[in-house]
Amino acid sequence: MTDREEWTRLAEAATPGPWKYVENESRYSRSATTVWGSAGPGYGAIADTHNLGSSRVEQPANAAFIAAARTAVPALLASEAQALARAEKAEGENVRLREALIKARKKLLNTALMTFPLEAQAYESVAFIDAALKEPSDAQ
What is the pLDDT of residues 54-98, one digit of tens each? Predict the structure, then answer.
């Protein structure tokens, strides 16, 4: 299973969002902040951040991150999926255009061999097509 599949599975299994967090006012509370589901405080805590082992100052930032991740992770996964689909489409278009250039090059060479006065111009065009067909790693 890929990370993307695992993150999608985890997001789909989690309590629906958005999530909110609330700082606990009592300085004697072991819980510095509580992350709540979309119904808000008092309706099913998602997570508590505790003062044990870390600074009370860090806890609101931790809780804010946990709460934001509930909606951010699915949004980022969707954005990544769209970007991958666009890249795949662009790759297909690249292959199509490359094949068209190769056909045009062959046709141009055949024309150049049959029409002597245009030969130099045709060969210049073939050289231009050859340069366009080079892979980026070939050009270095």
Answer: 566 677 888 889 999 999 999 999 999 999 999 999 999 999 998
Determine if the pTM surpasses 0.85.
Answer: no
Question: Mind listing the pLDDT tens digit for each residue in 120-137?
Answer: 777 788 888 888 888 665
State the Cα torsion 87-88-92-94 to the nearest 10°.
20
Write the burial class of residue 35 (CB in 10 Å: 0-12 exposed, 13-18 middle, 19+ buried). Answer: buried
| Domain-wise residue ranges, the chain | 3-133
The span from the CA of 35 to the CA of 66, in Å, is 8
Residue 32 phi, psi (nearest 5): -80, -40
DSSP character at residue 117 = G
Query: Is-contact 11 57, C-beta < 8 A?
Result: no
Residue 35 has what DSSP assignment? E
